[in-house]
Amino acid sequence: MQNVRPPLPPECPLALTSLVTRCWAANPRKRPHFDEIVSILEGYSESLKEDPDFFSNFIPPSPNTNIIKDYLPDCISGRKSALCHA
Question: Can you give the residue ranges of the Serine-threonine/tyrosine-protein kinase catalytic domain (predicted)?
Fold first, then answer.
């Protein structure tokens, strides 16, 4: 209501805070589609398997960053990336 959102706990990892914030965007067109949310969460899961400190080191992408475009060259070249599997 009135664009107010509940506060997230301070111990919530920045990666999840960033995703939740995107889902709460006032403009529905700026919210990620469900398949993108699933892909992001699967990527987080894979990243945690490879790096248990993933959430401690996570830096959210800038809102103008196109994640698919940024990681596509790595996927094509065969370099392993959690987002390639999502």
Answer: 3-41
Res 42: pLDDT: 95
Which residues, 6 or more positions from 15, have their beta carbon under 8 angstroms from its beta carbon?
44, 54, 55, 58, 60
> For residue 23, which amino acid is it?
C
- Mean pLDDT of the 55-60 span: 85
The amino acid that residue 10 corresponds to is P
Say how many domains are in the chain.
Answer: 1
- Confidence (pTM): 0.66
- Around Cβ 78, how many Cβ atoms within 10 Å? 7
- Tell how far CA 84 is from the center of its chain: 14
Domain that holds residue 79: 14-85
